[in-house]
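Feature request disguised as a bug: please show the residue count (258) next to Cof-type HAD-IIB family hydrolase in the output. Example input:
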Amino acid sequence: MKKPSIVFFDIDGTLYTEEMIIPLSAKKAIQALQDKGVYVAIATGRAPFMFETLRQELGIKTFVSFNGSYVVADGELIDKKPLEVEKVAQLHKEAGESEHPMVFLDHEQAAADVENHDHIVKGMGDLKMAYPPLDKDYYKNSEIYQALLFCGTEAEKRYQTSYDTFRFVRWHQLAVDVLPSGGSKAEGLRAVANHLGYTMEETAAFGDALNDMEMLKEAGIGIAMGNALEAVKQNADIVTAPVYEDGVKQGLERIGLL
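Example output, currently without the count:
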């Protein structure tokens, strides 16, 4: 097994526990990688403004955000894929008629289309995020890289068949991410690797959720956390311990980087 030169980490369920805490062992492991000259990056479904503090804490300037729709390398924007405004408007109209609330996100902030909706309260609360300000027309005036659509699985299937320009990825029991069709963390990983001069064989990636599967398959070495969904584990090369049992540290040890 060739030792990777660049390692990508998902955030929720990988670096963060359910309490949004980074285990000390993971912090020390990432610092050790950086001290050895291994390049460290983040690959997340979150918006950049949602993990700015984490980047500063870990000294990371390269990230794949919005599941691949907004990619930054060494502080420089290298790729972006905003959602089509006309299609967002169409989806928003249909969602409103079905009483499915939405949240719109650009790289700097989020906006909700309704106030104090229980599902948005729950979803954002589980991310330890405040309820977004109200602006139902936010998508008309900003480049939107991701939307959150709060609906059940049956409604999700209906939306999937109606919008081929979007990709719907469930991240919560109450909500799905709305992404550009064809976008993924794997695409972002490739963009970063190409920009920095790495081959895909030199990459490794850690993840735990459905939006990590393609990345784990595409990376030179894909490592699933012990707390990952079973489908994610099946698409990984290695399964490490859960995040709360030093999974990051153990995973890096297994691939020979620590």
